[in-house]
Amino acid sequence: MNRFLVPLGIFVVLIIFLLIGLTLNPREVPSPLIGKPAPAFRLAQLQDPAMTITPEELRGKVWLLNVWASWCVTCRQEHPLLVELARQNVVAIVGLNYKDERDKGIAWLRELGDPYLVSAYDRDGNAGIDWGVYGVPETFVIDKAGIIRYKITGALTPTNIRDEIIPLIKELNDA
Amino acid sequence: MIPEIGNFSLILAFVLALVLGVLPIIGSLIGNGPLMALAKPVARGQFVFAAIAFGCLTYAFIAHDFSVLYVAENSNSQLPLQYRMAAVWGGHEGSLLLWILMLSGWMVAVTLFSKSLPQEMVARVLGVLGLISIGFIAFTLFTSNPFERLFPAAMDGNDLNPQLQDFGMIIHPPLLYMGYVGLSVAFAFAIAALIEGKLDATWARWSRPWTTAAWMFLTLGVMLGSWWAYYELGWGGWWFWDPVENASFMPWLVATALIHSLAVTEKRGAFKNWTILLAIMAFALSLLGTFLVRSGVLTSVHSFAVDPARGLFILVFLCVVVGSSLALFAWRAPKVGLGSGFEVVSRESLLLVNNVLLVAAAGTVFLGTIYPLFLDVLDLGKISVGPPYFELVFAPIMGLAVFMMGVGPFARWKQASLADMAKRLWPWFAASVLLAVLVPFLFGRWSAPAVAGVTLGLWAILSSLAYLLGRVRESAGGGVWAKLRATSIATYGMLLAHVGIGVFVLGVTLVNSYESTSELRMRIGDTTVQNGYTFRLLSVDKVEGPNYIDTKGALEVSKDGATINTLYPAKRFYPVRESTMTEAGIDRGLFRDLFVAMGDQHSIDEWIVRVQYKPMVRWIWGGCLLMALGGLLAISDRRYRLPQASR
Amino acid sequence: MPNKLLFTILLALLVPLAHAGEAVTLHDDPKLEKRVMALSEHLRCLVCQNQTIADSNAPLAVDLRSQVREQLRQGQSEQEVLDYMVARYGDFVLFKPLMKSNTWLLWFGPLLLVLLGFAVLIIQLRQRRKLVQQAAPMSAEEHARVAALLSGKHEGDRA
Known about the structure:
The complex is a heterotrimer. Chain A is about 35% helix and about 20% strand. Chain A is built from five helices and seven strands. In chain A, the strands form two sheets. A five-stranded mixed sheet of chain A has the order 5-4-3-6-7. In chain A, strands 1-2 form a two-stranded antiparallel sheet. Chain A starts with 5 loop residues before the first helix and ends with a helix. Chain B is α+β, with helices and mostly antiparallel strands. Chain B has 19 helices and ten strands. Chain B has helices at about 1-30, 35, 40-60, 70-75, 80-85, 90-110, 120-145, 165-195, 200-230, 245-270, 270-295, 310-330, 345-375, 385-405, 420-445, 450-475, 480-485, 490-515, 620-635; strands spanning about 515-520, 525-530, 535-545, 550-560, 560-565, 570-575, 580-585, 585, 590-605, 605-615. In chain B, the strands form two sheets. In chain B, strands 2, 3, 4, 5, 6 and 7 form a six-stranded antiparallel sheet that branches. A four-stranded antiparallel sheet of chain B has the order 1-10-9-8. In chain B, a hairpin with a 2-residue loop joins strand 9 and strand 10 (about 605-615). The longest helix of chain B has about 30 residues, at about 200-230. Chain C is built from six helices and three strands. The chains are: A alpha/beta, B alpha+beta, C mainly alpha. Chains in contact: A-B, A-C, B-C. At the B-C interface, helix 13, helix 14, helix 18, strand 1 and strand 3 of B face strand 1, helix 2, strand 3 and helix 5 of C.
C-alpha cells in the first residue's frame, strides 16, 4: 500500500511548487550588479555635448541613475515622480538617455521637465549593457562609495518609491 | 442575440455535464440500470449544446460582431474568412470552447463505438468524461467566457495575431487538441477500471484503440506545430524546447509508453497497475500543459494572455482530477493481480525497458521545463534552461530507446534468448553502421554525431524490415504474398510507426549536422552560390495584401544553369497591430529545402537576404506522418471490430 | 579614330553592368559569424518571450549580438564572452545552465531518472518472479497438459 502512495505524494509536492509559482514573476531578472561597484562610463552630456559625465563624479553622494528614452511610453508615466523627487531635493538623479536621438531627448525633457542633475547620452547602448540594462525604464540606487545597492526594473511608482527607494536612500545617507 | 444563444447553450451543456458526471457513476455503483442508461443520451446532448455554442461563436466571427469582446480582441474587418474562423480558437477563451467541443465529440464517439462494452463500464467512462467536462465548462463560463459583450461595441477589431494568420492555425490547434482531449478517454477508461476494482486484459483491449487514436492525433498535432513554426517564423528552426512545445511533447512521450504498456496488459494481463498509472500520467500532463501555458508561471513565445487567477482555477482543477485519481489508484492498486509471469529477458521486460526510457525522457523534459520555477520558488536564483540543455540530455536517452525499439519486437513473449536475438540482429546493425559511415562523404564533412544518428535511424528502419522478413521466413507454408497477407494490420502498423521513427531520426540528424546558413547583402541582379545552388535577386517590390503590406523579394534559384524555382520571401507589415512578420520563400524538396528570408534594407540599393540549405528536413515531418499512419493501421485491425464472442 | 575611342569608353562603362555582382556576406568574416551565431544560441534575449538572441531581431538582441561579434573579433574566447554577459545580466541570460550547486539536480537528474527507473524495474522483475513462483506451483499433470497445449499452438510473436 505504501509504495502506491508515492505518485500521489510526488504530485502533492508538485502542486505546492506550482501554487507558489503562481505568485512569482518569471520575467523578473535580478541584477547581478547589486553590491558591486557601479560600472564606469565616460559619456557626453545630453544637453551639452562638449561636457562629459562619469559615475566617479558622484562619489560621496547617494544618487539615482534613471535609464530613459523619448521613445519609451512607460517613461512618460514615471517621469512626474522623478520631477517631484528632484523638486523636493530628496536625492541626486542622473539620467541615462538610452539609444535615443539627442534632439528628441532634449525636446522630451523640455516638454516633461528635467529632474536630472545631468543626462548621459548613451547613443549605442553600450553603457547600458555594462549596467545590465535590458529594458526602459530602469532605476539604480548607488551609495556614497559608488556601489550599486538596488535596481528597479520597470517604472517607478508611488508605492515602490515610498516603500523601497526612500527608506534605502535614508539608510545610505546616514551611513 | 446569437452570442446569448451561445452562452445559454454552454450553460445547458454545463447542466448536462453535471448530470453526466454524477448520475451514471452512482448508477454503476448501486447497479441501477436507468441511471446508467442516462449516460449515452446525456453525453450526446452535451455535444449538441457544445456544438451550438461553438457554432454561435464562429458565427460571431464570420459576421464581424465586434460587440463580442473576444471577437473584437481577435478579429478585424479586413481579416480573411478562413482566418476569422480559425480565430475562434486564436485566444484563450475560444480555445477552451474548442477543447469543450472536442471533449464532447470524443464522448459521442465513445457512445457510438462501445456496443461490446458492459453497461457499467460505459456509464463510468462517460461519467468520468462528464466530470472533466464540468471542470472545463465551469472554467469557461465563470472565468473565461468568450461570449462576454463589449459595450459600446468596437468600431473595428484588434486583428488576429499576424503570426496566426496562416494555414497552420487552421489545422494545428484542432489536431493537437484532439490528441490532448483523446488522452482523457484513455484516462476515463483507467478510472473506470479502478472504480470497478477489477482489472483484466479485456479492459486493456477496449482502451487500446482509443489510446492509439489519441496518440495518433497528438503525433499529428505536435508535428504540425513544428512544420508550421519552420516556415512561419522565418528562421528555419523547427523545435525550440519552448515550455509550450514541451507541454505537448511530454504527454506524447508518456502516451507512447502507454500504448506499448497496453499491448502487454492486453496480451499477457501483466503491468496492469503500471498501465493505469501511465494513463493517469498522460492525461495529467495534458492538464498540466494547459496550466503551464495559461497561468503565467513560465515564459513562452506561445503563451496565451496569461492570468494567475485563471492559473489558480486550472491548478485547483488539476489537483482535484489528478489527486483523486492517484488516491483511487493508491487504494485499488494493491488488490490487482499480477497477471502472467515472464522472464527477465522477454518481450514483456523489453517493453518495460521502453517504458522506463520513455518515462525518463518525459521526466527529463519536465525537469528542464520546471527547473527555473523550482529554483525561483526555493529562492535559489533565477536561471534559464533552453535548447543547449535539452539537446544534450535528451539525445542519449532517446538514442537508447530507439536502439531498443529495434531489438524489442524480436524478443519472444514470456521468454526470450539474448543470444538468439543477437545472432539474428547483428548483421542488420552492422549494415546500419556501415551505411552510416558513408553518409559524411555524401555531404563532404565528417561528423561523428551524424554517423551516430544515421546509424540509429537506419537501424530503426532495417530492424523493421528484418522483422517482416523473419515473419515471412518463419511462418509455415504458403507463398510470400500469402504470409504477408496473413500478417495482421496491427503488425504493419507497428512496423510503419517504427520506420517513421527511423525516418524522423534521419531527418533530425542530417539537418542538424549539415545545414548551412549565410546572411548576405544583395543588390538587384546579385547572385550567391550555396551548396551548389545559385540564388539571384531579381527584384524587391512593395505589395499590398488584404490586411498587410509586403516588401517582397523575388529570388531565382538555379542549379547547373537550369532554373529550378523563383522564391518570394517577404517582410510583411500588419498595420492594425503594427507588427512585422517574416514570410520565408522555400523551395521544398524531398531531400533538401532551400530557405530564403528577406531582411531589412541595408542601404539605398542593398537588401539583407538570409539563405539556408536544410538537408532532409522534410523527413522530420514525413517520419511523424508515417508514425501517425502506423497508429491508424493499428486501430483498424480486425480484432477491434470483431465482437468478443468469436475470439 | 574617335569612333574607336568612343567604343572603348562605352565598353569600359558597360563591363561592370554586364557582371551581375556576386553578393557580399553581410558580415565580413563568415567564420567569425558562425561563431557569433553559435554563441548567440546560448544567450537569452531578455526582452523577448523565451528566445535566443540568435532568433530575435529585438533591438537588445541585435545589440548583444554586436557585442558578441566585437568581443570575438578582438580575440576573446567563447567562455569569456559568456562570462561578460553573466556579469551584467546574471545566470538568467544563459540558456545552458552553469554547473553550480543549485543545478546539480538539473544536470544529473536525467541520468538519475534512468538509473532509478532501471533499478525499480529490476527489483520489480525479481519480486514478480518470486511471487509468480509462489502463487501456483503446478502439479506434474498440469505441466503435462500445458505442454500438450503449447506444442500444438505456437504462442506467436504477434504485435
